[in-house]
Amino acid sequence: MKRLIRIATVTAFVAVACSFWASGRNLPQILRAAVTKDPQIVEAQANQRVAQSTLEQTEAELWPKVRAGVNQPVLNSGGKYKFTPGVEAEWRLYDFGATRAGIERDRVKTQYYKHKTSETAEELAFQIASDYLEALQARESLRVAKENLARHEHIVKQLRIILEYDPGRRSEFTQAEARQIQVQETIISYERSLGLALRRLARYVDPPVTEGELADPFAEMPITDILNKYKVSEEDALAHPSYRAQARELESIQAALKAAERSRYPAVGLKGEANTNDSSVYLTMSVDVFNKATTPTIELQRHQAQAAQAKLDQIHDSLVQRAEVAALQMREDQSRIEISESQARALEQVVVDYEDQFKIATRTLLDVVNAYSELASVKQLRVQAQYDLMKAKLDYLSATGNLAQWAKIPDVSKAGDPEADQENDKDKKKGGKDKAEQPLKLTSLDGEADDAAAPLDLESYNDDEDEGEPYTGPEQVFVHVSDSGELIMETGNLDIRTKAKPQPATRASGKAVAQNAKPAPKKKSKSTTLAADNGKKADKKSKTMTNPRRRR
Question: What's CA 412's distance to the chain center, in Å?
Fold first, then answer.
């Protein structure tokens, strides 16, 4: 009986596990798990930190620079070889906004890399979803091809039986086998396509996506719902990560152009020097009287700004066009699906009629296998139309910049902020601190639930120190009182033996005092005398108590 119960339990567990695995992961779950851990995202987040460090480096130019140095003459015509330490400080007071323009350039650059991280996440999600849809198309095409193969195997099986009684129909049998082999070759091609698509997905997804997990991710999203929820507008195009990143790139180039133009103006600063001989403060001014590279640098920034503006307009037009084309294609693909489904239903009836007519010799074998091929072709067209519809929906979400929102992918650009890294480091430090171990507690072995079972603090006794140190070991210690009035300690791992002092103790802090402890029955165990009871009562008690061994 127990064996049957055990087998039933294991069977139920396996059934539940198989049902859970069969449900699998949907596309949004796959995207959330793959995008956040991909090396491309990690690289983009690292670029964010690099841009932030560059900004901090540029901002540091507003602060004064202090240097310390020493001079030790090695050869001197005056014969002076005095060791001379000194300090030098420089501070740029005014440079016509050149430093501020550089800071603004780097600040906009940090925003550019932040939007670039979001753009990378969108593009990566689009690539993974595209591979997913290709794998789904290959699986559906493979399913249709296997159905076609089953029909050919059925007709070949019937012809084999007919051939036993009518050898003259061997040509029809050979023709049917040839068509069957042709379908098998098609199946091999679809299996190869499915394997390649799943292998491409395995590059991003761990554990890899299986064939059973593939499903239409937009099955519950009609075209009208997508168009109403994610509309094509000017605001959506301006909010796309690609457009935002390029806009920040244009702003950074414009700030760099401003910094290059301001670099031709004078820079006024303050300089101070001090050593053991003298000290002085200077008001300095520097300007490039002749620098051939200044003008080409400014022209370079202007050309880059023009190129960035042109690319920004191109991105805007491309996003709007992609969204509009995807919306039109979705409606067209939906019509194609409906038409192909109607054709498939009609051809299925044609196949049944041709098979019946072939049995009564009113239709040839060629008519039957041609009907098989036509039905398979229509079903393949239906699979292709379904794939085009899913791809159009994916293109629409990507063009409107809502793919990450649809898949509920977290904002990966926040992980690249230095502030987030500092908060994570603080959390790690807080969680990594060693917590103070709880002090050792003494518990009475007496089974009665009274005050004797209250935990007691144990302190180590030291002859050389006036104060005792609390013992914080992890072992559990039990205490009971012997017949002679001594306090007995028992441990599982420790063997502490501290002899009791014969004279009254003067340092109470170095002892373990057990209050309200009742005598417990005597047990054979490793015992340690911690302390003798203070006062004359303990002496009288020890004299009046008789040792059981002595009585024997």
Answer: 9
How far apart are alpha carbons 51 and 109 in whole angstroms? 7
For residue 4, being part of any structural domain is answered with no
Q: The tokens of 197 are what? A: 């698509």
For tokens 């061997």, the residue is: 170
Distance CA 58, CA 425 (A): 25
Residues 104 and 187 occupy one common structural domain: yes
Full domain range(s) for residue 505: 436-534
Q: Other C-beta atoms within 10 Å of 45: how many?
A: 22
Q: Which pTM does this prediction carry? A: 0.68
The answer to whether residue 15 is domain-embedded is: no
As for how many domains the chain has, the answer is: 2
Helix (H) or strand (E) run with residue 175 in it = helix 170-202
State whether 481 and 511 are in the same domain: yes
The verdict on residue 155 lying in a domain is: yes
Give every strand in the sheet of 279-286, ordered side by side: 65-71, 84-94, 267-275, 279-286
In a domain, 542, yes or no: no
Provide the residue-wise pLDDT of the chain in tens; the chain has 552 residues: 555 555 555 455 544 444 444 457 899 999 999 998 899 999 999 999 999 999 999 999 899 999 999 988 888 777 777 888 999 999 999 889 889 999 999 999 999 999 999 999 999 999 999 999 999 999 999 999 999 999 999 988 888 888 888 887 888 888 889 999 999 999 999 999 999 999 999 999 989 999 999 999 999 899 999 999 888 877 778 889 999 999 999 999 999 999 889 888 999 999 999 988 889 999 999 888 888 888 898 999 999 999 999 999 999 999 999 999 999 999 999 999 999 999 999 999 999 999 888 888 888 888 899 999 999 999 999 999 999 999 999 999 999 999 999 999 998 888 766 665 555 555 544 444 444 334 434 344 344 444 444 443 434 434 444 444 444 444 454 555 566 555 565 555 444 444 444 444 444 443 333 344 444 444 444 443 433 344 444 444 444 444 444 433
